[in-house]
Amino acid sequence: MKEQLPALIVAVPLLAALLVTALWWFDRRLCFPIAIAAVGASLAAAVTLLLRVLSEGAVDYYLGGWPPPVGIAYRIDHLNGLIAVAVSLVSFLNLAACRTVAEQEFREKTGAFYALYLLFTTGLLGILITGDAFNLYVLLEISSLTGYALLGLGPGRAFLSGLNYVFMGTVGASLYLLGIGYLYVITGSLNMADIAAILPSLLPSNLVIMAFVLCLTGLFVKMALLPLHGWLPNAYTYAPSMVSSLIAPLTTKVMIYVMIRITLSVFSFDFAFDETLLRLPILWLAILAITIGSLMALSQRRLKKMLSYIVVAEVGYMVGGFWLGNRSGMSGAVLHIINDAFMTLCVFLAAGAIAFKAEDDRLRNLTGLFRTMPATMAALVVGALSLIGIPPTCGFFSKWYLISGGIEAGQYGFVAALIFSSLVNGILFFRVFEICYFEPTSPPHAYRYRRTVPAAGTGAVTEAPADLLTVLIATAVLLIVLGLYSGEIVTRVIHLALPPGLS
Amino acid sequence: MTVEPLQTMVSIRPLIAVLVSLLVIPILMSSARSPNVREAWTLGAAALKFLVVASMLPLVLGGFQIEYSIARVLPGYGLELRVDALGMLFALVSSSLWIVTSIYSIGYMRGLKEHAQTRYYCFFALSLSATIGVAFSANLLTMYLFYEVLSLATYPLVTHHQDPEARSSGRKYLVFILGTSIAMVLPAMVFIAQKTGTLTFAPQGIAAGTIGPQAATVLLLLFVFGFAKAALMPFHAWLPAAMVAPTPVSALLHAVAVVKVGVFCILRVMTSIFGTGMLTDLNISTAVCTIAAFTMIVSSLIALSQDGLKRRLAFSTIGQLSYIVLGAALLSKSGLIGAALHIAMHAFGKITLFFCAGAIFVASGVKNVSGMAGIGRRMPLTMAAFFIGSLSVIGLPPGGGFISKWHLAIGTVEAHQFVMLAALLVSSLLNAAYFLPVVYRAFFCPEPESLFTGPVQEAPTWCLLPPLLTAAASVVLFFYPQPFLDLARLAAQSIFGG
Amino acid sequence: MESLATFILTKYNYWAVIILLVIGLYAMIAKKNLVKKIIGMNIFQTAIILFYVSIGTKRGATLPIIEHAYGDSAHAVHAADYINPLPHVLMLTAIVVSVATLGVALALAMKIHAQYGTLEEDEIQEKIMESEPGSTSTSG
């Protein structure tokens, strides 16, 4: 059993998805427990694997017992072990939060929602642990297709934005597939370790560079790196809230992981940073993504859309941090994958709760929320502080590494962009808080000890459903806990995940 | 206790001192429905905090440093607390004044029937945690953490009234305080960590030898302006704006805790990050002296023209804060003693003045100096306290402020900065010029028409007692400044030796 | 000129792939009709499938079905005699993916048609602007 853990991470939610679909017709009450048990099992498997990796080193697993390069290998090391824990935890938390809202929003389609949710999680976790470049493509498409379908559950404009996402996502995945095709032509292998072993003997080669550029471009589309971000804001904004709080924290982060994995484990650090001229252009793209993403966020009038543009900016953080090419920058990028997943979960869950209760997420209509939904807003504040980068929330610490890496590499443009984005995030969130905190008409000294005054016009807004609220607060606490333990995470896990010779 | 200077001991007491007011918040929230219980808890927490802080005083005076490590958040840099003389001095001032302010808050908030009092007490407690955290920080990272927590915790206090005026003031407050700390202090701090590999405060500084003169100048200016809570011009505008807050907030936070955190941070960075030796060698502190002197004079001139009593006090605070920055930037032993002492002396003096302003407002609704004619006869105790407070802030005996200004003046002479001495004296004269007319008007001008029903109408006891206490303390500190003076001397000793 | 012709002719499979890719991309970007866009997307995917299939073929090679059983080593297997089966097998998966994508895309298109009564993007945009005055975004 213990030896089969890598397969179980993927197999359990996959099978549970089928089971949930079937059970929806027989006994609907069973669907949610099965779904959450399956994601919980994945989480447990991921945690166990990470602990094993920490004590014994990387774990290899051959599907069906076929050794690579013939068979498909799963390989869990410090990098994907850590991210798999984060991804499965985010998925678990979000699932635990979503029951009330999902059943009210989706009604007859709730079963489909759970099944798609599980498949989506399967796809992402598969991407994380697979050691095979083509298998990665298949899993990428599993998560994307279920992602499109999840977005399509939404009301209103979700269909159109979902279709745009389909177009862009397909182009991205196809470009990645083309890149892998090039690699296959060159090396005759699809196993990542195998390719990495063959490639150095073939360098320097323009074909290899071409393959690398194709893979990266495909991934940039998938991770919505500016200027390829067009699909993201609308897709996340108009998706059902429990879907956007699943997809927004995970998709872009997992794609950044794939970029790191492909760069380090397939093409090697030396090739990517020394033999291609990609470092500076990508760094500038990242700077652009951070600045323009932040500025676009400023001009939004809806909470979820604003958050979506922040996601675009955050992608720039991680891409830029990684392409700084030094230990601090890369640590920052990996740590930010973890932190940003939870920060984004926190703010999107809060936004979901607000959208669910206040039935509107236009910023100007959010007045009085601190009074009507104090706990939700408290969690949103913590998430926002983390995005701004205020200690001791975790966002501060990844930003610390990123800035430190930027200074070390002499990339002051990147440092300036990070600071600028922190300031803009500050403005963004405090603008929201100002609206939520101040009432349209607020008598200064009049109401003493009066606790519930319904906001004008909106009807009585009450606190979010209990399950959502519990998870939301847990996530907010987690942001601080992660911050306090970020030193441990970096020294004990992330430093081991990076190439050893890094300066 | 006769021990060698600066022995280190590990104890959890600094952490307890920080956490007391943090842990009381859930209790305050749960007792929202019974104000008496809630306020009893606030007072209890304040007293407990003071006792914990005070219990470390003998150790610090005996030459010990008390350390405690909370977490290692970054490789090489952890969240660490360390109690030394300077931190002790500041913590003692803020924790003792929290007790007084809590008493005052009860009178003030109830007297005005303010809304959301539970929120008010909770964030007040949080602010105090952060303040003590800054005082007891062992490294720049920890200090930055508590600094930011304090910025955020005070926002709901500043904007307590939740009206449009509070909104715009709150915005200004955040832009100045949060904006400068993120845009200036954060990069400067990461840069120092990157270049020196450490952030832990050391008596001789950590930057010497690793950071070049140009970089050091830029960094020093980033820190001096970036800690905008010190309200050095041109980053002072938030302080007058923050006066929309309820008066206890202005009293404790904007005369003591928040603003002193700003100057305390500057003091720490100059002495323990750069080190006085390095600053003397590079000769860059004159720039800071000049900024401080400029702020001192200009803010006093502006204070002269302010009619709102609280705004006048705010500009006075801006000036007085520059005294402290000036004292540190003189890089002389007496200057530093004066600066450290002024943290305490100005705190007691200025909080008295704010308490009085609030008491007048509660009793009569008067906010402006022009409306205070004759008020001294109606509220003799309040105005007497006001008089003593102003004496202390101006620096006249028997106010405690005289002692710190005396040391500051000696410091300028030690550093051969006679221009600064002149600035100091001119500014003191200006202080007198904007405070004494208030007292004169209150006692000697006839009141225009009767504001009051009875002949003597003081503010409620809860509001009256605190200013009397702090005024008395100001006088006592003139005759018996020992605890603070000893701490200041210890701090100066550890930095300058001897 | 002649060398260019050789260059194009000898690599004709790649050129075909590139032309198909560009056609697909063009349709996705320039066409206003959503179904045409979906067709463009499908052409784009098919181009890549074609690329994989073409790299697996060899001149004069046959299907990779070995006539004798495994282990029955009557004669050695010459790799050059058989086309490479792996890319073709991979493309089975890719075709499945592409069909699934097409299905999802068409389903979304149907939903959009039901919602707005049209599949022309500019008309949909107009309707969105009508229903959401002040909406600044330019694409769904």
List the helices and strands and how they pair.
The complex is a heterotrimer of chains A (503), B (498) and C (140).
Chain A: H1 5-23, H2 31-56, E1 59-62, E2 73-76, H3 78-106, H4 110-129, H5 133-151, H6 158-187, H7 192-198, H8 206-223, H9 232-238, H10 241-267, H11 269-275, H12 279-298, H13 303-323, H14 327-358, H15 369-372, H16 374-388, H17 394-409, H18 412-437, H19 466-484, H20 486-497
Antiparallel strand pairs in A: 1-2
Chain B: E1 7-10, H1 13-30, H2 35-55, H3 57-61, E2 64-74, E3 77-83, H4 85-111, H5 117-135, H6 140-158, H7 164-196, H8 213-226, H9 238-241, H10 247-274, H11 276-282, H12 285-304, H13 309-329, H14 333-364, H15 375-378, H16 380-394, H17 401-414, H18 418-444, H19 461-479, H20 482-496
Parallel strand pairs in B: 1-2
Antiparallel strand pairs in B: 2-3
Helix pairs in contact in B: 1-2, 1-5, 2-4, 4-5, 4-10, 4-14, 4-19, 4-20, 5-6, 5-10, 6-7, 6-10, 7-8, 8-10, 10-11, 10-13, 10-14, 12-13, 12-18, 13-14, 13-18, 14-16, 14-17, 14-19, 14-20, 16-18, 16-19, 17-18
Chain C: H1 2-10, H2 12-30, H3 34-56, H4 85-116, H5 121-131
Structural class of chain B: mainly alpha
- Greatest chain-chain interface? A-B, 40 and 42 residues
What portion of residues of chain C belong to β-strands? Answer: under 5%
In whole angstroms, the N-to-C terminal distance of chain B is 19 Å
Radius of gyration of chain C from CA coordinates = 23 Å
Account of the protein in words:
The complex is a heterotrimer of chains A (503), B (498) and C (140). Chain A has a domain at 277-503. Chain A has a two-stranded antiparallel sheet. The model of chain A is unreliable at 441-458 (pLDDT under 50). Chain A contains 20 helices and two strands. Helix content of chain A is 74%, strand content 2%. With 503 residues, chain A is mainly alpha-helical. Chain A starts with a helix and ends in a 6-residue tail after the last helix. Chain B is mainly alpha-helical. Chain B has a domain at 284-498. Chain B has 20 helices and three strands. In chain B, strands 1-2-3 form a three-stranded mixed sheet. In chain B, helix 4 packs antiparallel against helix 5 (117-135). The longest helix of chain B is centred in the middle third of the chain and has 33 residues, at 164-196. The radius of gyration of chain B is 21 Å and the shape is globular. Chain B starts with 6 loop residues before the first strand and ends with a helix. Chain C has 140 residues and is mostly helical. Chain C has one domain (2-58, 81-131): Helix Hairpins. Helices cover 67% and strands 0% of the residues of chain C. Chain C has five helices and no strands. Chains A and B meet through helix 17, helix 18 and helix 20 of A and strand 2, helix 6 and helix 7 of B.
